[in-house]
């Protein structure tokens, strides 16, 4: 059995374990909020610090920031155009979920298992550009179509970005790397021990948030959203995959990065702007399942090409 296939089986088992713990009431879905804060504010930053400390920043790595940002902008435009005929409550809700993907919580544990530290470095740089989309562009779309004016949101669009500990950690360690400074060995050793918890906690959290119940009346909207999100991601992903074939890890990052699930911050924006949080939460859950299957298929494809 291929190594990455074994890692996928282990990942599925941990996710199902989280779902089982929820079903038998060892853990509650509300416990996920605490676990999510631990992941985003402690274990994920620790993983970024350890991974980026010794990283050699190359042009291909830096290009991932711009690739992720441009992909997010293109997806945002496609989402707005695709849902332009919907009511504002649906248009803003669906359009804000097309750009922006879940890298830190979803991709990192799988990428670390398949490609190790090199994979984390590439997806980390991808996430820098993606973070601007998630905390800036998605936030703006959600607010603009909820209120119908952009004057307020242009001032606030990027404020969540400056409060994101993972994003600030990216900026901090990249700045240290470029300046030639390195963190003390004791600090890095401590961060490495903490970072080991990132993969299992992230996968358990995905299991806690899995929910398979939804109203049948939502199916047309969900189907349209999935077709737009994954149609765009697969088309652009495969296009760049062949163009960047001389840079295998760069090509892999783009291919996988473009079909990651919708960002969980969509639920936060839905609450803030009074969209239907049940539909948003359901769509996020479905994209987790769809993306997991697609990543397994694409990782198998990449392994033989």
UniProtKB/TrEMBL annotation:
InterPro entries found in the cross-reference section: Mem_transp_PIN-like
Localization (cell): Membrane
Membrane topology category: Multi-pass membrane protein
An individual GO BP term: transmembrane transport
Entry keyword set: Cell membrane, Membrane, Transmembrane, Transmembrane helix, Transport
Entry's transmembrane regions: 6-22, 34-52, 58-83, 95-116, 128-146, 167-187, 193-214, 226-244, 250-271, 283-304
GO cellular component: membrane
Protein name: Malonate transporter
Native source organism of the sequence: Oceanobacillus sojae
């Amino acid at each position: 059995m291929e190594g990455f296939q074994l890692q996928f089986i282990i990942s599925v088992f941990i996710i199902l374990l989280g779902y089982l713990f929820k079903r038998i009431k060892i853990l509650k879905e509300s416990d996920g909020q605490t676990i999510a804060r631990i992941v985003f504010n402690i274990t994920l930053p620790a993983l970024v610090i350890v991974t980026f400390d010794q990283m050699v920043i190359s042009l291909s790595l830096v290009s991932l920031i711009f690739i992720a940002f441009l992909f997010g902008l293109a997806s945002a435009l496609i989402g707005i155009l695709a849902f332009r005929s919907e009511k504002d409550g649906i248009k803003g809700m669906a359009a804000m979920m097309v750009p922006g993907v879940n890298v830190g919580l979803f991709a990192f544990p799988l990428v670390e298992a398949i490609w190790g530290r090199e994979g984390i470095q590439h997806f980390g740089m991808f996430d820098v550009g993606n973070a601007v989309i998630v905390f800036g562009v998605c936030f703006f779309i959600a607010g603009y179509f909820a209120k119908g004016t952009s004057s307020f949101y242009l001032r606030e669009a990027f404020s969540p970005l400056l409060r994101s500990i993972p994003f600030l950690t990216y900026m901090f360690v990249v700045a240290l790397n470029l300046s030639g400074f390195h963190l003390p060995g004791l600090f890095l050793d401590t961060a490495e021990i903490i970072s080991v918890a990132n993969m299992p906690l992230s996968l358990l959290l995905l299991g806690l948030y899995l929910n398979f119940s939804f109203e049948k009346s939502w199916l047309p909207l969900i189907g349209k959203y999935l077709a737009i999100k994954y149609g765009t991601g697969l088309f652009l992903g495969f296009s760049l995959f062949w163009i960047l074939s001389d840079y295998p890890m760069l090509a892999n990052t783009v291919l996988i990065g473009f079909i990651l699930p919708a960002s969980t911050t969509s639920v936060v924006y839905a609450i803030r702007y009074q969209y239907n949080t049940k539909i948003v939460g359901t769509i996020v859950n479905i994209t987790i399942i769809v993306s997991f299957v697609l990543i397994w298929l694409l990782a198998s494809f990449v392994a033989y090409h």
